[in-house]
Amino acid sequence: MTYAVPPTRTAAVVRQLRNEIISGELPPGTLVKDAELAARLGVSITPVREAIAQLSVEGLIDIAPNRTRHVTKVTQKNALELIDVMSVLACAGFEWGVENLTSTHIDLMRQRQKEFVEGLRAGNTLAAGAAGADFSTIVILASGNRELQSMVDLVVARTLRILAMGAESELWTTWIRGHDAILELLDCGDRRGAVERYRQIYVEYRAQVESHLFDVG
């Protein structure tokens, strides 16, 4: 999978910090300090502050009234709420876009699915998560509704973070099996069936998060 080089220092800092939060390198509750981050990343304070503001919008960093910043903590309640929101947005985009898919789109989805599986086998959850997200993005963008994709983008990082928390669980398997089934249905021309199978992924995913992911702690 190829990744675009961020066009600005702020974008580079956003990507770096987002990846560190999703992977758990910056654990929930970690105090975020501008100067320390700027020194570690070799940039000035300005792009760090701009990046923190962006990640706050994405829900990955909490900014308290006294202006202290912490990596957002994940609870079962907000995880389930996030899944419900993501389900509404992504399933709508998938339904709107599926009828516009061409053979080229489906080939790209198959490639992203391959990268998804390979990333997991290599233990690279960041690459796997990005490829898995792209699988859905291809369909959502086929709908032609870029406003919807922008809304999905705001919550996708938090969704990937939940998946990373369950790296050793069956959460990933739910998506792999679901994607494989969707590709088979699309190959057979059953686009309505593909939409229903996509919805089912979220039903199974939510149930697993509710039942297992927060058992410890």
From TrEMBL:
Database matches in SMART domains: HTH_GNTR (SM00345)
Molecular function GO labels: DNA binding; DNA-binding transcription factor activity
One Pfam family here: GntR
Domain HTH gntR-type span(s) in chain numbering: 7-74
Record keywords, A-Z: DNA-binding, Transcription, Transcription regulation
CDD domains, per the entry: WHTH_GntR (cd07377)
Keyword Lipid biosynthesis: no
Domain of life of the native organism: Bacteria
InterPro entries registered for this protein in UniProt: GntR_C (IPR011711), TF_FadR/GntR_C (IPR008920), Tscrpt_reg_HTH_GntR (IPR000524), WH-like_DNA-bd_sf (IPR036388), WH_DNA-bd_sf (IPR036390)
Coiled coil: none
PANTHER family (alphabetical): GLUCONATE OPERON TRANSCRIPTIONAL REPRESSOR (PTHR43537:SF24), TRANSCRIPTIONAL REGULATOR, GNTR FAMILY (PTHR43537)
Identification of the protein by name: DNA-binding GntR family transcriptional regulator
